[in-house]
Amino acid sequence: MKLTVVILAMTTTEGFFNMTSECISSLCESEENLEKEIIIVESNKNYSTSGFVYPDFVKIIIPSFTFNFHKFLNVGIKAATGDYIALCNNDLIFQDSWFSEILLVGQAHNEIMSFSPVGKIEVDNSLDASFEIGYKVMTHVKGWCIVVKKELFHKINLLDETFDFYFADNDYAMTLKSRNIKHALVYKSHVVHLEKQSTDKIKNNESINPDILSKYKIPKYLNEKKYEWVFNNEKNLSGFLKFHNKWGSPNFLYKKNKLADILIKNKLGYLVRFFLKLN
């Protein structure tokens, strides 16, 4: 069994280099007997002359285009040779046997094709089950570490590159659910997420210039006070609108998801695609 780990990095400072290096070291130490392939998809176009050097066993890919979350992950996916592929941030600390626990679930349940570890959340060890099926972002689907069986991409193709960062996790979760592909949160798989964003991040309280708003087609429901957060910054707004255009409004999607959950619970998941079909 071979695992390919795709890590997104931006090695422009010693701090970022050390963070990614710690991520790699913890990965190697956590699963010493596992055949691993480590691929870094690097945002720093000048990495080769930066003076920073990762271990020889790490494959470095530097795309010619600007950073796009799904597009960069797709670069790693296309280069991967493992039976399983982990899609990871570089601000992670892998704990002992984190992947072995995922592998146990994956081998025992062929129908589960996507997995996430738990993070800092303490898990009740008295739970009967070793995993939980679900699609809730940040609860079940951890966008900072998703592990998939390679054949998943024969079913969904590559990740939707429309989503360059914001709402990428939401789109992935909906893609799985709409195709009745099971995702599991594996309770005994532990990966600590340091939550130190390695890419430039716009402050949440940054207001959007009204002139910028004029270039977007804003749905009327976004005028409601409860959606003020959508306008925190332009990238957040853009991501929200991409998700809206693909999957529908929150209210409409909520109703479709409730019906889909009923179908899945009653083992009629093959019908879900008719209710969660793309707009």
From TrEMBL:
Top-level taxon: Bacteria
Keyword terms: Glycosyltransferase, Transferase
A single MF term (Gene Ontology): glycosyltransferase activity
InterPro entries: Glyco_trans_2-like (IPR001173), Nucleotide-diphossugar_trans (IPR029044)
Keyword Hydrolase: no
Domain Glycosyltransferase 2-like: 20-113
Homology family: Belongs to the glycosyltransferase 2 family.
Name under which the protein is recorded: Glycosyltransferase 2-like domain-containing protein
Species this protein is from: Winogradskyella psychrotolerans RS-3
